[in-house]
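The pair is set out directly below:
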Amino acid sequence: MSTVSYYADDLTEARVWYAQFLGVDAYFERSTPDGMLAYVEFRIGDYQAELGLVNRRFEVTPSDGPAGQILYWAVDDLDATFARLQELGAKIHDEPQVRGPGFVTASVVDPFGNILGIMTNTHYMAIAEQNRRD
């Protein structure tokens, strides 16, 4: 697991709620050019996994019910993995998107209707490499 994203209509309120729940504030945030808060991120757990909160405006598959979370699995070669998933019958959910330097995401819907996220993530790779050395 690399990153999990949750969506919220009021990202400021969600940030406060998660900070209270987790006992730490988000370490990162990104706003749109017009100043709207678009994304905040917490690092949690033994591997400092990323919990991202995303403005619902950017949700790929809007839902009226509890849904929308995408768990991203770290992969070494995003393009090859994305192609292989499609070869195995998965349907494109979200084309590869550069989210920032060293961070690229994509997702597919598996043949069973589940959303499967994949990601290249420099933070995850650095932590994993450090743990391999320890």
